[in-house]
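ASSEMBLY PREDICTION REQUEST
Request ID: AP-0331
Submitted by: J.K., bench scientist
Number of chains: two
Total residues: 788
Priority: normal
Notes: Please return the full assembly, not individual chains.
Input sequences:
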Amino acid sequence: MADAASNRPSLALHVPEPKSRPGDPVDFTEVHVPDAGAQPRPDEAAKPEEMRDLAYTLVRVLGDDDQAHGPWDPKLDPETLRTMLGHMAMVRAFDERMFRGQRQGKTSFYMKCTGEEATSVAASMALASDDMVFPSYRQQGILIARGYPLIEMINQIYSNAGDKLKGRQLPIMYSSREHSFFSISGNLATQTPQAVGWAMASAIKGDSRIAATWVGEGSTAEGDFHSACTFASVYNAPVILNVINNQWAISSFSGFAGAERTTFAARALGYGIAGLRVDGNDALACFAAQQWAANRARANQGPTLIEYFTYRAEGHSTSDDPSGYRSAQEREEWPLGDPIMRLKKHLIAIGEWDEERQQAMDLACAEEVKKTTKEAEKNGILGHGLHHPFHTMFEDVFEELPWHLQEQAKQATREREIKWPDQHPKDFAGEGAGK
Amino acid sequence: MSDTVEKNTKDTSMVNGRRMNMIEAINDALDIMLERDPDVIVMGEDVGYFGGVFRCTAGLQEKHGKTRVFDTPISECGIIGVAVGMGAYGLRPVPEIQFADYIYPGLDQLISEAARLRYRSAAEYIAPLTVRSPFGGGIFGGQTHSQSPESIFTHVSGLKTVIPATPYDAKGLLISCIEDNDPVIFFEPKRIYNGPFSGFYDKPVEPWKKHAASEVPEGYYKIPLGKARTVQEGEALTVLAYGTMVHVAEAVAKEKGVDAEILDLRTLVPLDIEAIEASVKKTGRCLIVHEATRTSGFGAELSALVTERCFYHLEAPVERVTGFDTPYPHSLEWAYFPGPVRIGEAMDKILKD
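STATUS: Completed
Returned structure:
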C-alpha cells in the first residue's frame, strides 16, 4: 500500500497505448523506412553480433522507383517473379471468396492475410519443397505457393464430406504432410519449439532438410517462443523463426508484445541467434531474407530469427471488427504500401508485365476460386449434413480404439438412429464419404 | 512372450535374468531401446553426461553418444515441445521431466499438441513420445517433489498413462510405451525406485533384491499396455491400486489377515476394465487406493466405473483411500500419506456389512 509518510517518488505503471484509435488521425512518423538497397548483406556465416544493426533497420530491395536495389536483391528471373505475383494474387482472391463464404453462412469462420501475402508466399518460395514448415493460421500463402489443391483448402474450410481432416478442425487449421506443412493448432506459438525439435531431429539424423516456423508478433510473448529461441540457440538448430509483425494481435497493438522498447528481430541477439528485420511488404526482401537464413541453416551455421515488418490490413478474423479499436486511416497510410502492388509495379518497371496481363490474371484467379468453390460445395457446406460418418469422431484419438471409445462410438450411432429412424446408415448423407 | 516371462518371474530361481531395482530396470529398458531403434532419443534436464538425478539414464550417453542421449535447458515446455517436433519428423523421443511436480510448464504442449496431433491431422502426424517422470510421495519431498498428478493426464483424450509398481513391470511397460505410437505419460513411483515400500514407515525398507519381481529378464520383452496385474488373488474384497500403493495395500492386507484380491492397474488409460469387473463381481466389495488428492482424483473415475458396471454385485459402498485435499506437506508427511491406518480402517468398513 502507498505509504503517505514516505518521501520517495510514487511509482507509476505504464500501460501502452497505440498512436491512434478509431476516428483519430494516423501517426506513422515513428516508423523509420530506410532506403531500399542501403542495408549490407553479411556473409551467411556471420556471427550474430557482427550483424547487430540488421535487427534494428529494415532490409529493403524494392525502392520508390519500383526497381530492385542493393546487395539483398535476389536477382530472380522474370518468370519466377511472375509466379510469385500469381501466388500472391491467388491468395488474395481466395481470401476474398472465403470471407464472403463465411458471411453467406457456408462456414463458421475464416481468417484473411491481406497485406501479408509476401511474408508467406515469397518467403516460402525461398525454401526447398521438402523443408518442413510450422505455420500459424495466417500463412495460407505457403500452401498456395507449394501447390496444395485449392479444393482441399475449401473442403477443410467447409468441414464437408471431402475434408481430409474429417471435419475435426476449425476452418483454416490445415495440415498437409505431403506438402511438408505441419498441422495448424489453435494454441499460439506451440509450433515454435516443435519446429526447433524437427530441425534438431533432422540434424540428429544427418539429414539436409531444414525447418521454418511462422509466429505473429503478439504470440512472441508466449513462453513457447522463449523456449524455441533457447533450444534453437543451444543446439544450433537448422531452423528459421519467422515473426510476422503486423502491428496488431486482435485488438492489442504491438506495444503489448514489447514493441515500444525494441524490435522483435533484436530479441534474436539476446539468444545469440542471427537477427534480420525485413520490409514485409517487399516480396523480394522477404525472399532474400528467407534464402539467406536457409543457406545459413543448411551450412550448419545455425538458426535465424526474421522479423517481417508489415500491417494486418483486415480484421483479425471473420469474428472481429477492427473499427472498434483502430483508425481506419491506418491501412490507407501504412508507409510500406501493399505487397502485391509493389511487386506488380516492379515487374512493369522492368518491362516484364503490364496492367492488362495483371487484370487478366486477377480475373483468372477469381474465376478459378469460384469454380473450385462450386466443386467443393458438391461435398457439402458446414451444417448441411454432408459430413463424415459419426464413427470417424472417435477414430485417431489413439492409433486403436480403446474399449471406452468403442462404447461411446456405439452411443453416437444409437443417437443417430433415434434422431433419423428412416435413414439407413448407407443412405445417410455423408455416410461412407472420405473412406 | 510376456506371458512366458511372467511365469518365469514367479519362480524363485532366476532364469536368464538378474536382480534389478526399478532404476536399473528403467535404465536397462532405455539401453535396449536405444540399441534396437536408431530413432529413439533420450533427453531431459541432467539426463546426459550426469546420468539423471535418480541415475535412470546413467551410462547411456557414453554408450550411445550425445546426439542420442543429451541434456536440455531447464524448460519443460521446450522439452515436450521439441519432442513433439521430433516425433513429427519420425523420431521416437523419450523425454524426462525431472519431477512430476514440474510437468506443468509442459502441459500445453502435452494437452493441446501431443495428445491431439493424431486426431487433428487425421493421422498425418503423430506424437510417439514417452514422457518419463518420477512421481509420488513418501520421501519427505514436500510440496514440489511428492505430487501424483495422474488424473490431470487421464482426463486428456489422446494420452495414455502408465505407472509400474515393480522392476519387472517397469522395464516391460517402458519398452511397450516407447514402441507405442501414442503419447504416453510414464510415471515412476520414486518411493519404490530402490525397494518396495510397505507404508509402515517406521519399519526398515527391504531392497528390491529380496522381492520376486526384481528378477528382470535379459534383453527385450514387453508387457502389454491396458492390462492389469493380479498381485494376489482373494475373496473378501478387491483392491484397485497402482504404483507405491500396490505394496502398501499388500502389506496392510497381510498384517490384517484380509483375504484381499489386489489388482495393480499398471495402465490407467486405457484401463483394464475387464479385470476390474471380473474381480469386483467375484468379491462384491471394492477399495480404491491412491496417493493423489481425493477430489476429482483417478479414484473417482474408478469408483464411478465400478458402481456403473458392478452395482448389483456390490455388497458395500465403494471406498476410496487417498491423499487429503491439501498440498503435499513436509513435516506432516505420514499424517498425509494414505498409510496402513487409513487403509485398514477402510477395509474394516467395507467388510463390516
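REVIEWER COMMENTS: Residues 122 and 236 of chain A are 25 Å apart (CA to CA).
SIGN-OFF: pending second reviewer
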